Amino acid sequence: MNYSDEELEKALSELPRSIEPERDLRRGIWHQIDRQTHTRARWRMAAAAVLLIVASSVMTLFLSREKQARQTAGHIVPGNRVELVNDNPGALAREYSSELQQLQEILRRNRETLAPETVKILEENMRVIDKAITEAQSALASDPNSDMLVDLLRSAYQRKLELLRQAARTSSAT
Amino acid sequence: MIGVPELVRRAQASDREAFDVLYERCVGRVYAVCLRMSADRSDAERLTQDVFVRAWQRLSSFRGDSQFTSWLHRLTVNVVLEDTRSTRRRIARVMNVEDPTEFEHSGSSTSIDDRMDLERAIATLPPGARHALVLHDIEGFKHEEIARMLGIAVGTVKAQLHRARQLLRGRLGE
Fold first, then answer.
1. Which are the contacts of A80, defined by CB distance < 8 A and separation ≥ 6?
2. Diameter of chain B by CA atoms?
3. In chain A, which residues have their Cβ closer than 8 Å to the Cβ of B27?
4. pLDDT 10s digits, B29-42
């Protein structure tokens, strides 16, 4: 068929705007989405792990220095040594919260016994660890069956507990 | 029937069923653009999947200032053009649709045979000319918009369009 300019314009404008694919593409779409979500969760997990390592290393160094500087015999803070074994993120948080509150109360009472610089770094590092916990929780929401993420979350809680215990011991050693 | 804005709101809250319904309502339009721009059925399916994966990931950035279908339409064109730029595999590609009924659709005054001839002829156009023609004469974008999307001058778009129409008329008259 020979088209004039007008006929060609009309024919083009009349082409259907919608063409259905021959097969349902949703399976492939959800597969890609799930795969990419999983990959993102792994990256978040890696980022959270790095944050944890950096935060806890820095804090341990500072608290050790402060303790040495005092050269006093400290007493161990009585605390319920929670061993976190639950795999459920909500249950992990509940198990953790009791000892956390206790340690934070001790730190609040003895805060003035710590050097301002140590308090500042302690607070900064707690924020970093809290961020790691939030990242792990967020990744778990996307990938709830990941054992690695549960381990990371447990590890983050454990790190926070250890740092708070150490800080509480140092602050109480007066 | 649930409206598109409500489906979008639900999908933004990670409701997969709502997103499935959005897929059902929009896939024809997305696939048509992908098929005509890529001139290859398997590429069109892959690109359609990519569009919906990207849409799911970016739904949170959709604020409802424009219609969802317009937003998705632009996203589709961007995905196709990005793919073209990144792969450079579609130079002078000839239509790979073995089944000529691929383009069969009712609802137009142009006869099915004429329309299929037209679709096939479009598919044989060089990529630059084809993109300009599909975006302008079928999808209704303005010269300036196409120039921005393709990263070329407005004059070049007009030249590509002129060339595309000339080639089309020639091929349809053979």
1. A98, A99, A102
2. 54
3. 20-21, 25
4. 999 999 999 999 99
Q: Which of A3, A22, A29 sits opposite B172 (nearest CB)?
A: A3
Spell out the residues 6+ positions from residue B54 whose beta carbon is closer than 8 angstroms to its own: B75, B79
User: What is the token pair recorded at B29?
Assistant: 């339009």
The one-character DSSP state at A1 is -
Q: Which amino acid appears at position B72 of this protein?
A: L
- Hey, is A144 helix, strand or coil? coil
Rounded to whole angstroms, how far apart are CA atoms B129 and B127? 6
pLDDT at residue A67 in the model: 62
Q: With contacts defined as CB-CB under 8 Å, which chain B residues touch A40?
A: none
ipTM score of complex: 0.81
The answer to whether residues B140 and B74 touch, using CB atoms and an 8 Å cutoff, is no
Name the residue among B29, B68, B62 with its Cα closest to residue B48: B29
Nearest-angstrom CA–CA distance, B127 and B138: 15
Contact B117 A1 (CB under 8 A): yes
- CA-derived radius of gyration, chain A: 27
Beta-carbon separation of A17 and B114 below 8 A:
no
Which residues in A lie closer than 8 A to residue B103 (C-beta atoms)? Answer: 16, 19
Question: pLDDT at position A169, please?
Answer: 78
Angle among Cα A147, A150, A151 to the nearest 5 degrees reads: 85
Mean pLDDT of B62-89: 86
B158 to chain A, any CB pair closer than 8 A? The answer is no
